[in-house]
Fold this protein.
Amino acid sequence: MNPEWTTTVLLVPCVVVLTAGVFYLYGVVIGLLSKTSVRNKVVVITDALSGLGKECAGVFHRGGARLILCGKNWEKLEELADDLSEASDPTVTFPPKLVLLDFGDMDSIAEVIAEILDCYGCLDILILNSSIKVKAPAQSLSLEMDKLLMDNNFFGPATLAKGVLPSMISRRSGHLLLVNSIQGKLAVPFRTTYAASKHAVQAFFDSLRAEVEEYGISVSTINHTFISCSASENTEAASSKSIWSFLYTKKPHGISPDEAAAEIVKTLNNKRKEVVIAPSLPKVAIYTRSFFPNVFFAVMAAGVKNAVASEKM
């Protein structure tokens, strides 16, 4: 047998084993970091009752964080807190504190901010993952719905962030992390107000990042296609026929809550300013929108025509 061929045959298994070992060690390191990075830190999750919120709550609770779980339903928050406590060692974890939070009620936000700060007297990490979305033609959306979207997706998160900033500035530390849609980077048809709210909150935190850097405060944004929480959502995404629907597919459906939570942990550790979780096509669409806007607009218009034609069939 040719010596070179023999060497190649022997090297391939070695490379495979080494590669697998590297990925295994990487997973172990990430797991350790998720514990050490949040241990004893005060972490607020604005929508702890969502799929992503529950996943983050579990990860951070096991990591020893002092959790403040927020949501609209007190009974469900209590159930989540009980589940976390029952599944953990009370000698190395802290019982979660609960705060009712509804960004749709902006008049209550000042009271919510005070309640959050009263829990531990300070705040280390604020995870802003609350959001609502609506898909409809622009002319069919009422002003009330527009305001509700803007309150939940922009005014609420921005007001809460501004409310906790003085505490972070006084301690010269803290991390604000916004979980945002990829529509904070580009807009697609039938999501006018939703896309507007996501662009607004993206711009707010992009501007805020430079303002608070001198105080040792980090600001991160994570833009995803969508977070798949159920099989029905995955089926709907896979069966969609419109052109722009492909902007929201990943493996091929969206990212799972545990994938998103893992990305949040990594972002908190490495303090990356911006993360886009998306397959290649949506990323190409972002660059196309920036450098070839007419091409992007033509594709979006074609998508609308395609959707209309499909409905008439």
Summary: The chain is about 55% helix and 10% strand. The longest strand covers residues 174-181.
